[in-house]
């Protein structure tokens, strides 16, 4: 499990483009036949992907988290961004269509990923995990069954449908806040004005982006912004001090997931456009 160490704003001005990519971008999230995870020391988040590719993948323990099994001291949110698949947790089988979200709490010993039992292939599971101090029950939410919020405006190119899955008024967790946002055709900005929340780390996974399209992801402090050019099914780590906003060359969908001090979705520190440099 590769590790990404915590960084601070003073490091940003001296970073090259490659430094930024090596520190904050996770380019190869989904690899057929593998579970590939990355550990970031920002809020001790683990994120990555599981692609069964016709087989069965079991989520085991890792030396980096010092646990006999993955969820011994952790919780995880899982969103399927591919074809229908199954997650089996301590013998309970959950079927996830594309866009569905499954929460698994601390203490579940066995987790396995597979394509759908009816022979459909192509499941791609995105995993976002944080340390947990107690256990909450497993919960599966289908697309559209979370707390749905319509945000933005076509005039400002940020009309989007936000589906909150794991949050303080939805599926309960210790730390994780997680959901999926889909941009409407003709909209490209995922959020603008941008914001930070100095109490939580947030990670984005961009998907449903055409092969020849890209998202220009803004990061850094508002007075010292930088950008990353991100392709389909790549993830980015946004430390609590960093703003996070992106504009695509076409519409796309993204998973947002956070862990940190609290679970209040609207706990944000606004970064007006006029303050950005």
TrEMBL record:
CDD domains: cupin_KduI_C, cupin_KduI_N. It catalyses: 5-dehydro-4-deoxy-D-glucuronate = 3-deoxy-D-glycero-2,5-hexodiulosonate. Zn(2+) binds at residues 195, 197, 202, 244. Gene3D superfamilies: Jelly Rolls, pectin degrading enzyme 5-keto 4- deoxyuronate isomerase, domain 1. Its cofactor is Zn(2+). InterPro entries: KduI, KduI/IolB_isomerase, KduI_N, RmlC-like_jellyroll, RmlC_Cupin_sf. GO terms for molecular function: 4-deoxy-L-threo-5-hexosulose-uronate ketol-isomerase activity. SUPFAM superfamilies: RmlC-like cupins. Pathway: Glycan metabolism; pectin degradation; 2-dehydro-3-deoxy-D-gluconate from pectin: step 4/5. Keywords: Isomerase, Metal-binding, Zinc. It is an enzyme of class 5 (isomerase). Pfam families: KduI (PF04962). Its EC number is 5.3.1.17. Coiled coil: none annotated. Binds 1 zinc ion per subunit. NCBIfam families: PRK00924.1. Belongs to the KduI family. Catalyzes the isomerization of 5-dehydro-4-deoxy-D-glucuronate to 3-deoxy-D-glycero-2,5-hexodiulosonate. HAMAP family: KduI. This is 4-deoxy-L-threo-5-hexosulose-uronate ketol-isomerase. It comes from Microbacterium helvum. The lineage of its organism: Bacteria, Bacillati, Actinomycetota, Actinomycetes, Micrococcales.
